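Appendix C: a fully annotated inverse folding record. The material below is reproduced so that readers can follow the format used throughout the book. The structure is listed first as tokens, followed by the designed sequence.
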């Protein structure tokens, strides 16, 4: 007989009648007094991760043990690793148990977890089976006009109303067994209410009720039998410990003077960090315009065994990501309300020393004495509904160094205030607020079109116009050569001289047709090699005009209006993965074709190749790094219009021929985890913008006559040499040797790269091939900046810019 004296008011005597796995009762629960007129006491679970912090793996294991008991009862089959699993629960050492093989259910079963306490327990039971398992949990979420709702009552609860919200979840309409899961049943009325509700809508023969603890009286058990007879069904019950309780309740009120919370100080200057996980979680359910977005894999709307691998991998990646923010051994992760399983699963991947618990709606008396289940309490407004009071329990001040608290959806920052104030009372050193889904208007900021027409390009870039200061070329050069990454600074945007603009205005008509033919050929090869189910993705900013030209040609020739996005790629940092995720989510099933204007020595080609390999490995995607360019003098991409070092007029200017955007920026204090890479938008240059004029002058040649010419060239192009030979590297290697250059990044070959280095950097000299032409603008820039010109034989390029270390 177990005896408990709760708050000197409630005497509870427990007679254990069945404990098949011989689990010490004190391993499963403690007792506490509840502020509830319907039930004055509470079994406080030591394994659920609700009111008492636990190792997340232990909580997950408790679900596995309950699943094992169900499997042995209903299937009469042995569970793999049974002894090891039971030993883990008895000893509260769970980590080694999760490499064991999960059994297959021989038939389909629908598992239903009860909110809010048993949502993670139910999910853990469901996740313990390899096949034929389906899961949904009840919810107290206020969902407006749901697709379908099954409502029922939890009579003894402080929050009585429950609902099921099956969404595209037809298994609930089948005749498969329904398996209800709760942490404990005292009367079983809630389970019976749900059984009656489901049976009225979707009748079936078999129901099961699983619980860690079963305290039903003989009368309660008889009520189950009566429902079986009345409905013509079978209800089986499974628990880890069952017995009966006797309660003696003193009618006098609780002496609240003896309830000391021992929380009387609040440290100042505790940093609060807000992190977003929407780049990890894109499985979203949109109920209707009146509702927030919801994560699919919580189980609120229904999931099945095929979702388990995705949940496991997303949780693993997220846990590894969050682990990098940990700075100590003592870390507490906190789920919120019924949002328990995903945070718990993530916490299990965040390393050693992590404990887990969850906020709750249950008001419980705190009392710091031995064997009492609630030592202290923190009361606050629920950030997602300020009219609701929520609680946290059993966090000793000063015990943890950092807290990670998880929310499914974002709210306004001020709605966290009440919670944050309470968390600061725990005396942690750092607080992290983790949000899975930010509000729709908090998706990564885009510039959308820059100065281009809406149909031409969409920039997936964050506007940093008022947040970053431009720096002079010499200042930047010193910083870059001292180790500062070039993407962390912006150069002062070059303002062309009248003479330079005069040259530029002559270059466009002079080379427009040649550029039109080259861009048309590249576009034709894209269609020929990749088909029509593609998304054009140009690399800002030199790739943006090229992407527009390809898009326009394909539209004119094939009446096919392909989507075109312009995103960032940065040497040494890779591609903007958030932008790629955005595109993949918006255009599921389409193939991405990357585009740039030209190639130099192939640095970005290599960067893109490595970025795609990394992205594909991490996200299970199939990005093709094969880039398309107008001109490929470096001989390093598979799709090109020409391999001549072609004069592309857009190389001659910066923002004023690229949609009025700067080069892309990636700096940690400006670009956060879920942001797109950044740019500055130069609205002050609107009057001198030639972005649209340039693409208009090229694309005006896209007509019937050029189509015929392109078709003729295309017939012969497959005979021509399209090998990726990296021919340009021979020039690079020779230059490095002849001029004793120590850093390959100080060599800028080709018309495009030479122009860029003159506009942005401090070149030492410009090499000009003897047989070159088309270099009027380069000669003009070099003259304006007093840069030496030297004749030098080049095989792949017409020219090359050289940078010398600043100290020289």
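Designed amino acids, in order:
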């Amino acid at each position: 007989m177990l005896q408990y004296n709760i708050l000197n008011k409630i005497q509870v005597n427990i007679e254990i009648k069945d404990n098949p796995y011989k689990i010490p009762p004190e391993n499963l629960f403690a007792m506490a007094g509840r502020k509830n007129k319907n039930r004055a006491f509470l079994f406080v679970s030591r394994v659920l991760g609700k009111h008492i912090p636990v190792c997340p793996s232990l909580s997950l294991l408790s679900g596995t043990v309950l699943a094992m008991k169900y499997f042995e009862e209903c299937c009469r089959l042995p569970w793999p690793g049974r002894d090891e699993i039971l030993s883990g629960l008895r000893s509260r050492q769970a980590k080694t148990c999760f490499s064991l093989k999960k059994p297959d259910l021989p038939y389909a079963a629908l598992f239903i977890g009860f909110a809010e306490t048993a949502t993670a327990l139910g999910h853990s039971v469901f996740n313990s089976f390899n096949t034929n398992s389906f899961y949904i949990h009840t919810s107290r979420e206020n969902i407006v006009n749901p697709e379908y709702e099954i409502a029922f009552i939890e009579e003894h609860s402080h929050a009585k109303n429950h609902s099921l919200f099956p969404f595209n979840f037809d298994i609930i309409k089948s005749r498969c067994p329904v398996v209800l899961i709760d942490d404990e049943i005292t009367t079983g009325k809630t389970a019976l209410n749900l059984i009656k509700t489901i049976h009225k809508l979707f009748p079936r023969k078999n129901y099961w009720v699983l619980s860690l603890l079963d305290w039903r009286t003989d009368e309660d058990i008889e009520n189950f039998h009566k429902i079986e007879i009345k409905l013509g069904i079978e209800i089986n019950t499974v628990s880890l410990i069952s017995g009966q309780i006797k309660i003696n309740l003193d009618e006098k009120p609780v002496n609240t003077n003896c309830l000391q919370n021992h929380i009387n100080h609040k440290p100042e200057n505790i940093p609060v960090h807000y992190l977003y996980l929407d780049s990890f979680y894109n499985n979203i359910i949109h109920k209707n315009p009146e509702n927030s977005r919801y994560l699919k894999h919580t189980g609120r709307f229904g999931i099945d065994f095929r979702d388990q691998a995705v949940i496991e991998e997303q949780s693993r990646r997220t846990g590894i990501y969050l682990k990098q923010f940990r700075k100590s051994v003592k870390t507490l992760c906190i789920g919120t309300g019924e949002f328990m399983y995903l945070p718990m699963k993530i916490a299990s991947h965040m390393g050693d020393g992590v404990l887990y618990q969850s906020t709750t709606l249950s008001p419980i008396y705190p009392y710091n004495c031995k064997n009492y289940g609630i030592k202290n309490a923190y009361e606050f407004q629920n950030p997602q509904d300020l009219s609701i009071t929520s609680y946290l329990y059993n966090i000793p001040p000063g015990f943890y160094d950092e807290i990670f608290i998880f929310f499914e959806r974002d709210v306004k920052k001020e709605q966290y205030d009440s919670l944050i104030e309470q968390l600061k009372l725990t005396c942690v050193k750092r607080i992290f607020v983790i949000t899975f889904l930010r509000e729709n208007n908090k998706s990564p900021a885009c510039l959308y079109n820059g100065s281009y027409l809406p149909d031409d390009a969409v920039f997936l870039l964050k506007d940093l116009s008022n947040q970053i200061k431009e720096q002079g070329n010499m200042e930047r050069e010193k910083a870059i050569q001292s180790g500062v990454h070039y993407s962390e600074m912006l150069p002062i945007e070059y303002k062309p001289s009248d003479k330079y603009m005069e040259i530029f205005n002559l270059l466009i008509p002079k080379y427009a047709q040649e550029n039109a033919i080259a861009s048309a050929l590249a576009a034709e090869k894209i269609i020929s090699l990749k088909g029509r189910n593609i998304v054009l993705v140009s690399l800002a900013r030199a790739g943006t005009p090229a992407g527009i030209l390809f898009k326009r040609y394909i539209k004119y020739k094939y009446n096919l209006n392909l989507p075109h996005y312009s995103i960032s790629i940065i040497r040494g940092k890779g591609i903007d993965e958030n932008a790629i995720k955005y595109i993949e989510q918006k255009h599921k099933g389409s193939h991405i074709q990357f585009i740039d204007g030209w190639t130099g020595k192939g640095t970005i080609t290599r960067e893109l190749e490595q970025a795609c390999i990394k992205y594909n490995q991490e996200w299970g995607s199939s990005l093709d790094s094969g880039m398309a360019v107008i001109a490929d003098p470096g001989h390093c991409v598979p799709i090109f219009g020409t391999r001549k070092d072609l004069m592309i007029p857009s190389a001659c200017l910066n923002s004023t021929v690229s949609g009025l955007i700067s080069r892309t920026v990636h700096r940690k204090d400006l670009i956060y985890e879920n942001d797109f890479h950044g740019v500055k938008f130069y609205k002050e240059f609107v009057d001198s913008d030639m972005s649209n004029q340039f693409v208009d002058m090229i694309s005006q040649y896209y007509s019937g006559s050029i189509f015929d010419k392109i078709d003729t060239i295309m017939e012969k192009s497959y005979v021509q040499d399209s090998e990726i030979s990296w021919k340009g590297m021979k020039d690079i290697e020779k230059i490095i040797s002849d001029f004793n250059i120590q850093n390959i990044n100080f060599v800028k070959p080709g018309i495009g790269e030479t122009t860029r280095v003159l506009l942005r950097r401090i070149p030492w000299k410009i090499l000009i091939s003897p047989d070159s032409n088309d270099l009027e603008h380069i000669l003009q820039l070099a003259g304006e900046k007093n840069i030496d010109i030297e004749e030098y034989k080049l095989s792949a390029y017409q020219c090359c810019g050289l940078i010398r270390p600043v100290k020289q």
